[in-house]
Amino acid sequence: MMFHGTTRDEAEALDDLPPGDRPHLVVIGNGMAGCRAVEELLARDAQRYRVTIFGAEPHVNYNRIMLSPVLAGEKTFDEIVINSREWYQENGIELVAGDPVVGIDRVNRTVTSQTGRSVQYDRLLIATGSDPFIIPVPGKDLPGVISFRDMKDVDSMLAAAAQGGDAVVIGGGLLGLEAAHGLTLRGMKVTVIHLMQTLMERQLDEAAGWLLKQELESRGQTILTGADTAEIVGDGKVEGVRLKDGRVIPASLVVMAVGIRPNTALAREAGLAVGRGIQVDDHMVTSDPAVLAVGECVEHRGAVYGLVAPLWEMCRALADGLTNQPSGYTGSVTSTKLKVSGIDVFSAGDFSGGDGAEDIVLRDAARGVYKRVVVKDDRVVGAVLYGDTADGNWYFDLLKKQEDVSQLRDLLIFGQAFASGGGQTDPNAAVAALSDDAEICGCNGVSKGKVVACINAGNATLDAVRATCKASASCGSCTGLVESLLKVTLGEEYAGERTVKTMCKCTSFAHEDVRREIVAQGMKSIPEVMQRMTWSTPDGCSSCRPALNYYLLCALPGEYQDDQQSRFVNERMHANIQKDGTYSVVPRMWGGLTNPRELRAIADVVEKYNAPMVKVTGGQRLDIFGIKKEDLPAVWADLNAAGMVSGHAYGKALRTVKTCVGSEWCRFGTQDSTGLGVKIEKMTWGSWMPHKFKIAVSGCPRNCAEATIKDFGVVCVDSGYELHIAGNGGIKVRATDLLCRVATEQEALDYCAAFIQLYREEARYLDRTAPWVERVGLAYVQQRIVEDPVGREALRARFLYSQSFSQEDPWAERAAGADREQHAHMAAFTPIHQKEIA
Ligand SMILES: Cc1cc2nc3c(=O)[nH]c(=O)nc-3n(C[C@H](O)[C@H](O)[C@H](O)COP(=O)(O)OP(=O)(O)OC[C@H]3O[C@@H](n4cnc5c(N)ncnc54)[C@H](O)[C@@H]3O)c2cc1C
Q1: Ramachandran sector of residue 777 (left: φ over 0; alpha: ψ -120 to 50; beta: rest)
Q2: Distance 747 CA to ligand 1 centre (A)
Q3: What confidence tens digit (pLDDT) does each residue in 345-377 have?
Q4: Per-residue pLDDT tens digits for 115-168
Q5: Which of 60, 68, 128 to mutate to test the pocket of ligand 1 (most atoms within 8 A of CB)?
Q6: Are 249 and 243 in contact (CB under 8 A)?
Q7: Closest residue by CA, ligand 1 atom 2
Q8: Which terminal Cβ of the chain has fewer Cβ within 10 Å, N or C?
Q9: Protein residue closest via CA to atom 5 of ligand 1
């Protein structure tokens, strides 16, 4: 081949340049590989090169693999930025963003950008990644047909999704399914068109592909396998996709995710050796010694890659080469995970079977688990895991090392803890048993040895590990492994904190994730949530069950059947258990008012069931102590007969509405605080909430009802009503924040309903209003309740709709007639479908 560029001797002479006259490294491509290569170089010798990076995209370096979570609404763009502008500045790197390089002159060693900028290089690094493959069918250029490669594509998808309607994703591979998932979560009706019979057929066998298809269909996607695209139809913009069998699938958006091609155009034009990709040696040097290439654009020993793990290895070898260290890249074995929340899929190696290959399979239909490990000559050669991927890294490690597994053969399929722990399944033991070079974070190419070294260097939290060695900093699927390593390495010293607190030990999802998925996937029962979100325990625990029960109740008013077994004992018994094992019973007294009939009924109960004590509570009710558990149903029947309902003094619900006497009797009262308190209580009682909720209404600023330490407090003033929120009189006393002032009683009622519903929909289970408001900020609540009248009205309507079921809820102790008036009032409100709530 004719050689026009720098010779190897000339390139090596660069290393002898005097200090201060640093050679200039120009990088084309500000993507994952280009920037990682620079990071590796800086880590070895920050002063060695002067660096300029050209990027076609207008952004700083971001984590491309996290575009899927951005599309799905799980991350923001800012959260996936890898290197901020400060990073470039601090390291003296010149970033030319949004200006692609259009030509390389290897003779004069310059590159020229689209805007005409010409820059001289001593070493050039090409890291141009891949181009999405667009199938050459009629209509491919219609507006509305896009690929899924960069932030611009995500923005286009989000804009399309905001209009709603139908989307077609062509390609049922990793990328296509992640796009389909995101668009579904964004509210589009999605059809996936896949040429082959099996989804992700390059990673999954037929069985796992089928399970995946079932799961996606049950989430509302239409999956057409064995479907061949003939044409994209539309007049001026995309309107649908016609298949070769004649079917037309309507679509206002078509995402092509059928594959990628190494982006080699520049290199080819510059006369570099190009095969399937830009050809490089083991130090990522192209056919021109002054020009290197790294990432998806390269071909190394005949292989091209489409995942990040190999790129990290390439970048290390490249930086070693640039700083005259030996090593070298010898190729990668890759594994794949799908980033669709609640669907665990892992695949590595060759699962095609063939001569001498032996399949070991485990199916657990109830748990939706499928595992297949392919063994050949006593070595693992492939693994496909669906539903339980915890052992993926272990199988991958065995595969890469080609370890002899003949001794583990019988236990292999049950996972590492079983196979190497004699039947004990301690995940920490399993991680401890991994070898030092076992890969922990595939996204960032971080081995167990590196994570442990990072922890030992003083990084004692998950966040610190993420920030320092990048393990778990990308897709997050190895977070559990990193946490296990923290536990194993630090022992008792590991505090176990996480930035995002998981709901409990049964799941790696946070409360917010679970709530979002319940609504997004339309999940209807606790077992369904556990199955779909792959709970690690069969039935959950005392932390997650009540939370799930609450989230489902809140999301599906009237539809979800309350699960009594998921409630705490007090809520099951409708009474408060006391330290001697008896119960105390608090009937509701609306606004703190009572009458002879109620008092007589309470007196009768006290005598009939030998209650040793009756006490006036701080919430202005009567508490009957010392009731035996077996008497509780009869006690409630007697109270119900007198028209009294539970005061929910035990519940994560509205407790009491405390009032003072107000303008009716008090010389200082400005408004009818008692009357308003009764109205508020009648409107809000029986509403399940994340935690207990207390209300008070004071008739004047003297505030006798102590409204300014309640979850919702009203202080009546001459001009109307001051509405206060997020107070607390418990262990940590907190005065309320002033939400706003309103003029009429009806407004006070409306704002109260809207505030409660916002709290019900957005606070985590067991969050009181005070920490919740502190977390989200008073300004946020004001914006939702005060400044957005349409949103406030929607919240209020959702609350009242939910109440129309909750107050009809067949509680054993509920008195017929106690809430009749309220129900009639409720009937005036139109039900809102849950979808609108999302
Ligand atoms: C949505 C999505 C999800 C993914 N998920 C995963 C995953 O879960 N796991 C995994 O391992 N991999 C995943 N990948 C693949 C992974 O992102 C790629 O392997 C990786 O980004 C490749 O890095 P690269 O630097 O070679 O290319 P890129 O990251 O694409 O960077 C190349 C950059 O070069 C720029 N460029 C191109 N031409 C020029 C020019 N002439 N001048 C200047 N700049 C130019 C491009 O604009 C781009 O910014 C995913 C990819 C996508 C799109």
Answers
A1: left
A2: 53
A3: 899 988 776 778 888 877 776 677 888 899 999
A4: 999 999 999 999 999 999 999 999 999 999 999 999 999 999 999 999 999 999
A5: 128
A6: yes
A7: 65
A8: N
A9: 65
Ligand 1 pocket, 465 CB below 6 A? Answer: no
Q: 339 CB less than 6 Å from ligand 1?
A: yes
Q: Which residue has the tokens 């207990």?
A: 692
Whose alpha carbon is nearest atom 35 of ligand 1? 29
Q: Is the CB of 56 under 6 A from ligand 1?
A: yes
Q: Is the CB of 100 under 6 A from ligand 1?
A: yes
* Beta carbon of 129 within 6 Å of any ligand 1 atom: yes
Helices (H), 499-631: 511-521, 526-532, 544-555, 569-573, 596-608
**66 Cα nearest atom in ligand 1:** 3
Angle, vertex CA 275, rays to CA 270 and CA 277, nearest 5 = 80
Ligand 1 site, residue 55, Cβ cutoff 6 A = yes
- At 467, is the secondary structure helix, strand, or coil? helix
Phi then psi dihedrals of residue 757, to 5 deg:
-65, -40
Q: Is the CB of 149 under 6 A from ligand 1?
A: yes
Contact 251, 167 (CB under 8 A): yes
CA angle 796, 819, 595 (to 5 degrees): 120
Query: What distance in Å separates the CA atoms of residue 522 and residue 527, rounded to the nearest whole number?
Result: 13
148 lines ligand 1 (CB under 6 A): yes
Task: Report the alpha-carbon distance of residue 439 to residue 442 in Å, rounded.
Answer: 6
Distance between alpha carbon 400 and the CA centroid of its chain, in Å? 31
Q: How far is the CA of 266 from the centre of ligand 1 (A)?
A: 16
Nearest atom (ligand 1) to Cα of 305: 19
Give the distance (Å) from ligand 1 centre to CA of residue 391. 28
Ligand 1 atom closest to 57 (CA) = 47
Assign residue 643 a region (left: φ > 0; alpha: ψ between -120 and 50; beta: otherwise): left
Classify residue 15 by burial, with Cβ atoms within 10 Å: 0-12, 13-18, 19+. Answer: exposed
Q: How many residues does the chain have?
A: 838
CB burial readout 569-586, b (16+ within 10 A) else e: ebbebbbbeeeeebbbbb
Mutate to test the pocket of ligand 1, among 39, 61, 62, 65 (most ligand atoms within 8 A of CB): 65
| β-bridge mates for residue 576, sequence order | 584
Indicate if the pLDDT at residue 17 is higher than 60: no
The tens digit of pLDDT for each residue in 370-428 reads 888 999 999 999 999 988 888 888 899 899 889 898 888 777 888 876 666 544 445 56
User: Is 151 near ligand 1, meaning CB less than 6 Å away?
Assistant: no
For the Cβ of 101 lying below 6 angstroms from any atom of ligand 1, the answer is yes
- Owner of token pair 């090392």: 401
**Residue 779 DSSP SS3:** helix
> Is residue 750 scored above 70 in pLDDT?
yes
Q: In the Cβ-directed half-sphere of 573, how many Cα atoms lie within 13 Å? A: 21
Ligand 1 neighbourhood includes 611 CB (under 6 angstroms): no
Burial of residue 432 (number of CB atoms within 10 Å: 0-12, 13-18, 19+): middle
The predicted pLDDT at position 12 comes to 56
Nearest C-alpha to atom 15 of ligand 1 is from which residue?
307
Q: How far is CA 262 from CA 274, 293, 298, 299, 365, in A?
A: 10, 12, 7, 9, 40
Angle, CA 511 vertex, CA 507 and CA 514 arms, to 5°: 70
Alpha carbon distance 813, 508 (integer Å): 38
What are the structure tokens assigned to 9, written together?
């001797």
Number of H helices, E strands in the chain: 28, 36
- 513-516 contacts, C-beta under 8 A, 24 or more apart: 513/74, 513/341, 514/547, 514/548, 514/551, 515/551, 515/555, 516/73
CA of residue 641 to ligand 1 center, whole Å: 70
